Amino acid sequence: MMRTSVLIMIICILVVNLGSVCKGGHLRKHFYKETCPLAEEIVKNITWKRVATNSSLPPKFLRMHFHDCFVRGCDASILLDSTANNTAEKEANPNLSLGGYTVIDEIKAKLEDTCPGVVSCADILALVTRDSVSFQFKKPLWEVLTGRRDGRISRASEASANIPTPSLNFSSLKQSFAKKSLTLHDLVVLSGGHSIGMGHCNFFSNRLYNFTRKGDADPSLNANYASFLRTKCRNLSDNVTAVEMDPGNSRSFDNHYFRNLKLHKGLFQSDAALLTNKGATNIVDELLSSSKFFTEFAQSMKRMGAIEVLTGNSGEIRNKCNVIN
């Protein structure tokens, strides 16, 4: 009798757990297979069409996804507009240079026409990021598990408090990533996202002028590279000019960033910080292998895309990505 009761209890627990998975309690492959089978194809087709005529989109989406996940998890809170009573994340200083919102709106509109109220903006952002970066290879660079739901809260103050800044030292960077359950390995690997895109002068020009209050540049910065950057960023107040984050190779997603880093040509202090720790430096050396970089980047993006996700009955599926229902 006792054994029978225990067996029934175990079966009930298994049924409950399986039920939660079936209801979307976790991210998984092909989440929309039954409810919106064309979802991922629609996202890819529109994304590739737009990236084909605008090469600045991949790095913008990569940063947008990263910045979104570091604030309240990957819940598309970064897509929400400000209201009369609230300043949203997209208005925070780290997010002012982001772009591509209209592409996400276009994709969402098409998905709402195809299968209304089914595909979340959080999943759209995760898929757009993967597909935009993958465009140059014409194949997906990493797997995106789906089933995220959308958050209802977006505060600029939380973005400023949670998104790692380009001026952080190694210990602060490591702590910032650890708070999101990301490892030292993830920190170094995901820094490889700086392989594409531009960096505005105001985020690094302090390294070029009077860095140690002696009228000099940051001694950890390659001297020739510093001289070149001074020809682009004429003064500390320039917040308009932007330069390549991966000099000479900023439109091609690859491991070239790590080669430049070893030459002390990391644009931001947060880049240079990776060489101030032995463990991080060892990982940088490993990522000089192209195949190693692509393999590891895929795994780290998968982990980042799962930070504090809303699933099951949490959050909502927004009808429009820029406003809550």
From TrEMBL:
Instruction: Tell me which cofactor or cofactors this protein depends on.
Output: heme b; Ca(2+)
Q: Which residues form the active site?
A: 67
InterPro entries per UniProt: Haem_peroxidase (IPR002016), Haem_peroxidase_sf (IPR010255), Peroxidase_pln (IPR000823), Peroxidases_heam-ligand_BS (IPR019793), Secretory_peroxidase (IPR033905)
Q: Which keywords accompany this UniProt record?
A: Calcium, Disulfide bond, Glycoprotein, Heme, Hydrogen peroxide, Iron, Metal-binding, Oxidoreductase, Peroxidase, Secreted, Signal
Q: Record keywords: Calcium included? A: yes
**Can you cite an annotated GO cellular component?**
extracellular region
- Listed GO MF terms: heme binding; lactoperoxidase activity; metal ion binding
Positions that bind Ca(2+) 2: 246, 254
**EC numbers for this chain:** 1.11.1.7
Gene3D superfamilies xrefs: 1.10.520.10, Peroxidase, domain 2
The text of the family note is: Belongs to the peroxidase family. Ascorbate peroxidase subfamily. Belongs to the peroxidase family. Classical plant (class III) peroxidase subfamily.
**PANTHER family attached to this UniProt entry:** PEROXIDASE 25-RELATED
Q: What is this protein called?
A: Peroxidase
Q: What is the species of this protein?
A: Parasponia andersonii (Sponia andersonii)
